[in-house]
Amino acid sequence: MEKAIFEQINGSYAMVLVSNCGVISVDSLCDFSIKLKELQVPVVKLSTRQTLVVVGSEEQLKKVEIMAPEYNFKVGNFGSQVRNVKGCSAGEGLCKRQLDTALNLGIEIENEYFGIQTPHDFKIAVAGCSRGCTDPLCADFGVIAKGKDKYDVYIGGRGSTVKPIHATKIYNNISRENVKNALKYVLDVYIEEGKKKERIFRTINRIGIDKFIDENIKENKKEYIDEEFLAFI
After folding, report:
1. Which homologous superfamily is 81-212 in?
2. Is the pLDDT of residue 57 over 70?
3. d(Cα 135, Cα 143) in Å, to the nearest integer?
4. Can you give the residue ranges of every domain in the chain?
5. pLDDT tens digit string along 109-132?
6. What is the CATH number of domain 5-75?
7. Rounded CA gap, 124 and 143, in Å?
């Protein structure tokens, strides 16, 4: 696995650390901060991908890499792999607008798929309501909770570019178990059909989106409408 450790233009280094969908316990955060201070690490930064970027010398970051697992962090990855999952705050006591505990689903997905080799980098985002705080429509595989154990699934999005692309919905109101089944199916097709360095939206354009849809995954035909979200926008 290619590690997310990069040399900066000023000669320092940056290491990307990952926790489960950005969740960090208070004890881990405090204890880890003390260790970073002891190492005289000059600065850390929270990224838009819910990671912690630690900046320092090459020698400092070697020590950080060794101790990171003790505080429930792992070094992030880059290149043609499944990246860390962006999960919103839809967990117990974290967000009053959640329609289901999407955070737990995101953590389950990350634990199972993080680091798997793919034709291009593969980004996953899970949101607990239609607000989509984790930008699921800009992900290669996006999930939005629509109600209790009801999720919509989108594929083929692309953000962080001058030509962003909204993902296309392929499932409506499916269970969280079927979300995981859908992800496995999409990844299997992408790994089999995708060309080297080909982002999944390009694979979709080349072979068609229907090949990524598993007919065995059944939808709940009753549509859920988030009235509060409609009022919000």
Report:
1. Sulfite Reductase Hemoprotein, domain 1 (3.30.413.10)
2. yes
3. 9
4. 5-75, 81-212
5. 999 999 999 999 999 999 999 999
6. 3.30.70
7. 8
Q: How far is CA 199 from CA 41, 121, 131, 156, in A?
A: 36, 7, 25, 8
Residues 41, 55 contacting (CB under 8 angstroms)? yes
> Distance from first CA to last CA of the chain, Å, rounded?
41
- Whether the per-residue pLDDT at 99 is higher than 50: the answer is yes
Residue that has been written with the tokens 């696995």 in this structure: 1
CA distance 177 to 108: 11
166-178 pLDDT per residue, tens: 999 999 999 999 9
Contact 211, 189 (CB under 8 A): yes
Residue 214 C-alpha from the chain's centroid: 22
C-alpha distances out from residue 172 to 147, 176, 178, Å: 11, 12, 11
